[in-house]
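G-protein coupled receptors family 1 profile domain-containing protein
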Amino acid sequence: MEDTHGNHNFFSNCNFSTDTYILSNQTKLNCSSPSWSIYPDFYIVLPIVYSLICAVGLTGNTAVIYVILKAPNMKTVTNFFILNLAIADELFTLVLPINIAEHLLNNWPFGGVLCKLILSIDHCNIFSSIYFLTVMSVDRYLVVLATVRSQRMPHRTYRFAKAVSICVWVLVIIIVLPFTVFASIYVSPDDVLNRTSCVLSFPSPEDLWFKASRIYTLVLGFIIPVSIICVLYSVMLYKLRTLKLNSNAKALGKAKKKATVMVFMVLALCLFCWTPFHLSTIVALTTDLSPTPLVIGISYFITCLSYANSCLNPFLYAFFDDGFRKAFRKILECGS
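Predicted structure tokens:
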């Protein structure tokens, strides 16, 4: 079994909500005592951190969505992909209060349907960000390549961006569907209080299914998209270097350069926040760590870091894009 929170739990033999991810599936705790009851500081700190991520994420991503939908000059292909990134982050931050409530209650009182929904959205957060960044990297690569060759891109339209985004969402839903199917309410037979948890309940052999799910997430949510992105940016940097050396080549416009830099920075932030999460999968599959305070603390830190990605992107948009910065300022002026 696995906890609801973005596959972050490796106390799979217990039914408690612990957002840890780097502990081994074989780790056994007393199932009447979740990790934060043994180390109560986690019980206090985590809701504060999650609440901060939720508040900042909802505010920032709502502003991004509003700006792109309302400002006519913001309706570009790149910004439409950014809109979808913001929607994915918004969905995650909207359900984060339920995760906070489960953590505080040490119980899942919300029923089976909401369990499947919350777990699905939580897993969508793992795949959607990196997939849209992969699409944005492909788009930046094609723009740079077309600029170097002095070619136009007649098919790169707002409508085409909508079609691509729909395809990405469909792909993410298909990938997340197995987690939705296995999501269920569980009551540990060792728990005298009969507290419930929203978990992934795998069939026998459970350990094999658990490892398969971790490899599935690692390969589809990290290795494949990141490999594609690395190849694209390596070729792109080579093309840009060639562009500088070729005086007859058409130089990239200022707007194109800024858009490329912004996409690269958003990508770098995503990898910074999510790489420890995926590396912890490798640790969990290859080692059997004891749940010491240090190990549990690192696990929670990794979880918080991956969650934080959902609230940090708006700051990058405001920093790198004049249009976003002016639109955000206008929203603040109207609010005051």
